[in-house]
Amino acid sequence: MSVPDIVPVILSGGTGSRLWPLSRESNPKQFWPLLSEHSMVQETARRAAGPGFAPPVVVVGEAHRFLVAEQLRDAGIASPQIVLEPEGRNSAPAIAIAALLVAEAQPDAVLWIMAADAAINDVAALHAALERAAAAARGGRIVTFGMRPTEPHTGFGYIELGEALADVPGVQAVQSFTEKPDHATAERLVAGGRHVWNSGMFVATASTLIAELREHAPAVLAAARGALDGAARDLDFIRLGADAFRQAPAISIDYAVMERTRHAAVVPADLGWSDVGSWDALWDATPKDAAGNATKGPVELLDAEGCYIRSEGILTAVLGLKDVVLVTTDDAVLAMPRARAQDVKKMVERLKARGLKQASEHRRMYRPWGHYEGLIMGDRFQVKQIVVRPGGRLSLQKHHHRAEHWVVVKGTARVHRDAESLLLSENQSVYLPLGCVHRLENPGMIPLALIEVQVGSYLGEDDIVRLEDTYGRS
């Protein structure tokens, strides 16, 4: 009998605030191409695709459902099960949901659980480690991957290696866990040679996870069952029962199960792994020039050394700086010593306290039909660029406080305006007076791009009265 496929479970609920201003709540780091032309969630899914792997289960916040679906589709990932969390409750409830969902059809299926935003350089070594972990998992173990430490890092948890498992070569029992230590403790753990970094990847059968949750975290399991019992299919998504899910304790799988179970095991490995959790970690994982500089985008350097410089469009010139991070986006700039990378979260909290939208929102906002981007904001007017993917259509809507002018700059637009239906091509435009019922569609084979000029007394996104929506939004 052939071995069943491994089921990848991708957790995509983080916001990555230490990578601000690139990563924000509206578009977190897992949806950005940080190390290649693919986003982090695409890289993660591609590592777990092909022979031997079932379609993935992806657990994501409701606000990012269309973004993750589009990126998986662009990466060629077929038939994913996308589960929508009503709110973030840490990793244990998300993993419980995935285990219960898979167990409905395959209780003994092996789950490979991983975060959507980690980097791994040696995929062949990863798959070899996964093979060993899966063998131990089929024997009733919950297996994590231990990364051999390269420095006394204080941002990772540590695992103490126990005895080797007699029945599975290359897998060891877990002796103990140590949460993120201070520097002195980290130095001692690394020097002792018995500790590895906790990568946050886990391998176990669905039935083992459910049994251990039942024993060690019954409230988590009960809430997950209730959320699945109250779940509904919404287009390509599984929308969990919100009230039941919110009853789940907000707890990590490490605290809920791994530190309590008698079945924890670890595969020590060298995978070129990074959690890419901060700008210094991204500098470390990025190829560098002879002076130790890592760059991305339109960047010019002169007498710079040990820097990470990234631009999302604006020419960024750096002269005579050493060991700094400089990141420019279209609406924010971050500059700091590379050694202060862990403190970016404090800056984001400060910006939020001041009520600045740049703390959590990008100018480009993604929607199920495509995206829009603010270009100019003035008194009683604003200008946006709207891009609609082929086959996409906005909701049938009207506005109480603004009129709109649309100018097509690329592709073909079908515009419904009250009783009219208009077909517009490049350089053609349409006026939508205040209160008219309208809808925009892209009937073509290439993306539709248009410039929208809004004029009125109030220009907020909440001045949209949706009368009908393909994507189930209210």
From TrEMBL:
<dbReference type="InterPro" id="IPR011051">
    <property type="entry name" value="RmlC_Cupin_sf"/>
</dbReference>
<dbReference type="InterPro" id="IPR051161">
    <property type="entry name" value="Mannose-6P_isomerase_type2"/>
</dbReference>
<dbReference type="InterPro" id="IPR029044">
    <property type="entry name" value="Nucleotide-diphossugar_trans"/>
</dbReference>
<dbReference type="GO" id="GO:0004475">
    <property type="term" value="F:mannose-1-phosphate guanylyltransferase (GTP) activity"/>
</dbReference>
<dbReference type="InterPro" id="IPR014710">
    <property type="entry name" value="RmlC-like_jellyroll"/>
</dbReference>
<dbReference type="InterPro" id="IPR006375">
    <property type="entry name" value="Man1P_GuaTrfase/Man6P_Isoase"/>
</dbReference>
<dbReference type="InterPro" id="IPR005835">
    <property type="entry name" value="NTP_transferase_dom"/>
</dbReference>
<feature type="domain" description="Mannose-6-phosphate isomerase type II C-terminal">
    <location>
        <begin position="357"/>
        <end position="469"/>
    </location>
</feature>
<keyword id="KW-0808">Transferase</keyword>
<dbReference type="Pfam" id="PF22640">
    <property type="entry name" value="ManC_GMP_beta-helix"/>
</dbReference>
<keyword id="KW-0548">Nucleotidyltransferase</keyword>
<dbReference type="Pfam" id="PF00483">
    <property type="entry name" value="NTP_transferase"/>
</dbReference>
<dbReference type="InterPro" id="IPR001538">
    <property type="entry name" value="Man6P_isomerase-2_C"/>
</dbReference>
<keyword id="KW-0342">GTP-binding</keyword>
<keyword id="KW-0413">Isomerase</keyword>
<feature type="domain" description="MannoseP isomerase/GMP-like beta-helix">
    <location>
        <begin position="302"/>
        <end position="351"/>
    </location>
</feature>
<dbReference type="InterPro" id="IPR054566">
    <property type="entry name" value="ManC/GMP-like_b-helix"/>
</dbReference>
<keyword id="KW-0547">Nucleotide-binding</keyword>
<protein>
    <recommendedName>
        <fullName>mannose-1-phosphate guanylyltransferase</fullName>
        <ecNumber>2.7.7.13</ecNumber>
    </recommendedName>
</protein>
<dbReference type="Pfam" id="PF01050">
    <property type="entry name" value="MannoseP_isomer"/>
</dbReference>
<comment type="similarity">
    <text>Belongs to the mannose-6-phosphate isomerase type 2 family.</text>
</comment>
<dbReference type="GO" id="GO:0004476">
    <property type="term" value="F:mannose-6-phosphate isomerase activity"/>
</dbReference>
<feature type="domain" description="Nucleotidyl transferase">
    <location>
        <begin position="8"/>
        <end position="290"/>
    </location>
</feature>
<dbReference type="InterPro" id="IPR049577">
    <property type="entry name" value="GMPP_N"/>
</dbReference>
